[in-house]
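User: Quick sanity check before I run a bigger batch. Here is a single chain. Can you write out its predicted 3D structure?
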Amino acid sequence: MVNSIIDEMLVLIKKMEDYIDQDIEDIKKAKHEELLTRNSEKEEMIEKITSYKQDLNNALVQEMENGVDVNIYRDKVDSLEAELKKLYEANRKLALIVQPIQQMYKDIVDEITELNGGQMFDVKA
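Assistant: Done. Predicted structure follows.
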C-alpha cells in the first residue's frame, strides 16, 4: 500500500513538473489560453497529492502498528521528498516569470484609472 501511494504521488508530481515547464514555454510564446486549461488540471492534481499525503501517513502508521519496520520505505520516501523539492523549485521559477507580468498589468490598470480620475472607464450617458 505504501509503495503504491508513493508511486501515484510520483506520477502526479512528474506531471505537475511537466505542466509547469509547458506553462513557462506558453508564457514565453504568449499562449495564455493553454495556461487556463492546465490550471484546472493542476488544481486537481494538487488536491490529489494532498489526499495521497494523508493516505501515505495513515498507511505508514498502519504498517508501524502491524510491527513493520517502516525504514524499508526510506529510499522511496526520500525520492518522493526530492521530487517534491524539484516541483517546488519549478513552481518558484514559474512564479518569478508570472509576478512581473502581473505587476505590469496592475501598473497599467492603475495608470489608466488615475488618468480617468479614479475610475477605470469614464461612462457618459
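Residues 111 and 120 are 9 Å apart (CA to CA).

User: Great, the batch can go ahead then.
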